[in-house]
Amino acid sequence: MEVNCEGCAGCCIDWRPLIDDDVDHEREGPYTPLDDTYNLTPLTRTEIRTFLADGTAAALTPRFWSADDGVTIDGHELAAVGGEPVFFVGLRKVTKPVGPFEQSPHWLRSCVFLDSTTLQCRIHDDDRYPDQCASYPGHNLALDQETMCERVEASFGGERLLDDDPPDELDGLLLGPQALGEKLFVHPDPERLDGLIDRLIDGELRPEDRAECIAVAAASSPATTAIDEQHYEQYREQALARTSWIDDAITEWTDRSGVLASPAPKPDVAAEVEDDCGAPGTPGWE
Q1: What is the dihedral of CA 205, 207, 209, 214, to 10 degrees?
Q2: Which string of b and e fits 199-229 if b means at least 16 CB within 10 Å?
């Protein structure tokens, strides 16, 4: 596997507003995400705990799915296991000025850890870098599924996927029952989600909403639907603590951002938004 990532970041950006075609591979099949985030990266329980310990829980957000037969919350039928809603936790996307694929800068939803200037991940080389990101698009290639590299090529031209042979070594996909408690989590008390689901659909999740789901995920036990209540309380407190650059950067981007896909200032404005808040740097392209 070999990919050309320079100037792309197609897997880190919701670039759909730049094109006329309706591209949405996440909304196919029987379960539809309730949020409108594109390419949300699922994290493992261990990775979620790492973000909590590092004080960067503000980078995380939950995803729930609709289903024909599940549990009803806020008037919506949600996918469930044993009458309890299931969800995963991923990395938030924030509206930033970016110019991928040799396009002029536009306001697009981008991964919270993406540096607008270099189009590189700010945590690429540390222990918080998710396995899902590190292995992409290896799993797609192994499963003979279309990659984001190929979607970008089809929409904007150029060569992104240079070698489509799957890597010899790949981390586990965690599909089916093995994902339970590791990447797919079960909320033990649907009543605590009253109001949260409506806010998720409206794109208005509160810090308390995210903390609730993050804490449940972090306190989950592998291969079960059980959570450790004592650890849940501990993780919830950690999730609510404002201890990183991310909180201030998200607030600043929210205040500055324009309409999605509208022209944006030069991406190097990220230096005075994220760098000045203490965000880690990126190496740049050689």
Answers
A1: 120
A2: ebbeeebeeebbbbbbbbbbbbeeeebebee
Percentage of the chain lying above the pLDDT 90 cut: 76
Provide the residue ranges of all domains of the chain, joining segments of one domain with +: 2-44+63-185+244-277
- pLDDT tens, residue by residue, 263-279: 999 999 999 999 999 99
Closest CA to 240 of 220, 217, 218, 215: 215
Nearest to 241 by CA among 92, 90, 51, 42: 51
Instruction: Supply the pTM of this predicted model.
Output: 0.93
Q: Which residues contact 125 (CB under 8 A, 6 or more apart)?
A: none
Q: Is 248 exposed, middle or buried (0-12, 13-18, 19+ CB in 10 A)?
A: middle
Burial bucket for residue 119 (CB in 10 Å: 0-12, 13-18, 19+): buried
Residue 137: asked if its preceding bond is cis (omega within 30°), the reply is: yes
Give the integer Cα–Cα distance in Å for 220 and 226.
6
Token duo for residue 120:
């590189």
Mean pLDDT (the chain, rounded): 92
CA dist 261 and 247 (Å) reads 24
Question: Residue 94's pLDDT is what?
Answer: 96
Using one digit for the tens of pLDDT, what is the confidence trace for 217-257?
999 998 888 899 999 999 999 999 988 999 999 999 999 99
Position 28 pLDDT exceeds 90:
no
3-state secondary structure of 233: helix
Handedness of CA 229, 231, 235, 237 (dihedral sign): positive
| Residues in a beta bridge with 163 | 2
175: buried, middle or exposed (CB in 10 Å: 19+, 13-18, 0-12)?
Answer: exposed
